[in-house]
Write a structure and sequence with these properties.
alpha/beta, Rossmann fold, 2 domains, 6-stranded parallel sheet, two-stranded antiparallel sheet, 6 helices, 8 strands, globular
Length: 186
């Protein structure tokens, strides 16, 4: 099953319309979408406006692929379940969001190989055409690392020294250095 979600805050009609059209063209009946209070109502896929968090997690767990806006909550949940996720970020110039933060998020996660990014509806159709062959993603923990928690505690307690990593180091591709306790890009 392909699970499509726009998140819990606002509709994303451009993405829902693109998936609905793709499903109609390909004869796919295995698509379920959470669409929020959008103006566009799909004709070729099953959908609901909203769902409870437990239902959301169940849908992600059962999905072979997740398709979403580039919201952090959705991306992290898909990664927790080890699901491949295709993202179509909302864009500021299309008046879908107030900034291009989702575009920046999708680029960053895409460069790490954690999400598959579609920048247009046509690209989304192409990515969906390959959906059945997408590999599961590397799972992430649903809990913050002990190092992160210690750094946050130190910051909140006014400790100017970053906490030294005494447990384990992340892979070199994911390593970050600290300055005043704040992570910097490698």
């Amino acid at each position: 099953m392909i699970f499509v979600t726009v998140g819990s805050q606002e509709a994303f009609d451009r993405m829902i319309r693109a998936v609905d059209e793709w499903a109609a063209q390909r004869g796919r009946r295995d698509v379920f979408a959470q669409i929020a209070a959008g103006a566009y109502k799909p004709e070729h896929i099953e959908f609901t406006d909203f769902m409870e968090p437990a239902e959301f997690k169940r849908r992600v767990a059962e999905a072979s692929v997740v398709v979403a806006h580039a919201g952090m909550g959705t991306i992290l949940t898909a990664l927790e379940f080890g699901k491949p996720i295709v993202v179509l970020p909302r864009r500021e110039h299309l008046h879908e969001t107030r900034s291009d933060h989702q575009y920046a998020t999708s680029k960053r996660f895409g460069s790490q190989g954690r999400v598959i990014v579609a920048e247009s509806e046509l690209e989304l159709h192409a990515k969906l055409d390959a959906a059945d062959s997408l590999a599961a993603s590397e799972r992430i923990s649903s809990e913050a690392s002990p190092e992160l928690m210690a750094t946050i505690r130190a910051f909140l307690n006014g400790d100017p020294q970053p906490v030294k990593n005494s447990v384990s180091k992340p892979p070199s591709s994911m390593r970050r250095s600290s300055q005043k306790g704040l992570p910097e890009e490698a």
